[in-house]
Design goal:
Elements lengths: L10 E2 L19 E6 L1 H19 L4 E7 L3 H8 L7 E10 L5 E8 L9 E9 L3 H12 L4 E9 L12 E5 L5 E2 L15 E4 L1 H7 L1
Helix pairs in contact: 1-2
The structure holds inosinic acid and magnesium ion.
Amino acid sequence: MKPKKSIAPPLSVPPHIIKSRAAVPAAHRLDIEAILIPPSRIQRRVSELAHIISADYRGKEFVIIALLNGTVMFLADLVRRMEFPLQFDLMGVSSYRGGTSSGDLEFTRPLKLDIRGRHVLLVDDILDTGKTLRAVSAELASLGAASVRTCVLLDKPAGRVGEFTADYVGFVVPHLFVVGYGLDHDEKYRNLPFVGVLKEEVYQAVR
Ligand code: IMP
Ligand code: MG
């Protein structure tokens, strides 16, 4: 089967950016190696995605389903830039417990919205192996969605197990563990306003 193309072509984060350590605020220098995507770039890209998605779904029975907890910042910024009526709901799925290794997929908060016959945009923070979005997309289809597309802030293609392409991608990132703007390690760092690279010794310690 031919690989599916993303509707929103992703922006790649150039590797030289990860060498710029100077900008990491002093309070985070112990844990954060470098800033990968600064807040202003995140905001510009989220606006672009909101614009593209609005154009694609305007006039349709549209609903956003976002995965807890990593999408809270992304979702909040994204929906506030969409200029048409929509509904969203949150789903709890956890596959990464504690550290970075993937456990079994567990649904921790079921949907409240009825998605039957509706066009669903499934939003997650980062696409890594593809296991989460593959499983949740199938679940949403089985609940009767008219269509299911996926949107991620970050895509780490080097982590992929099997084939999976998200429809809307914010940034393609290198094969590093990233945190901030909703993304965590051991439930920490979600409140950082940027996406940063976590120091290897931090996640090696929990693994
Ligand atoms: P997948 O099922 O392997 O695609 O993993 C997706 C989930 O893994 C995301 O929703 C994140 O919670 C987590 N994840 C994968 N890579 C990272 C990372 O670099 N930082 C933080 N979380 C990650
Ligand atoms: Mg997550």
